[in-house]
Design brief:
The structure is a single chain. The protein has helices at 14-32, 36-46, 50-70. The chain is mainly alpha-helical. It has one domain (14-74). Helix 1 (14-32) packs across helix 3. The chain is flat, with a radius of gyration of 14 Å. The mean pLDDT is 96.
Length: 75
């Protein structure tokens, strides 16, 4: 288990919320594949695959939706 990195979903504005959504997606990959050398080996494969990139964007969008809801859509 890694040290705690997510203390809140609250952010100051939508830009910070989107950046948090990206961080959440990246941390999800790190939890799923904790070995840096394996992630580095796989990166050239998925960075050239449109379907993988679209899937990554979908994960970020879902995370952003969650963060936006937690922030009451910054209203």
């Amino acid at each position: 288990m890694q040290t705690q990195w997510l203390s809140s979903l609250k952010t100051d504005d939508p830009q910070a919320g989107y950046e948090l959504a990206i961080k959440m997606a990246r941390m999800g990959v790190k939890y799923t594949q904790p070995k840096d050398e394996v992630r580095q080996k796989l990166r050239p494969v998925y960075e050239q695959d449109a379907n993988s990139l679209i899937a990554s964007s979908q994960v970020i969008a879902i995370n952003f939706q969650t963060v936006a809801m937690a922030n009451n859509y910054w209203s």
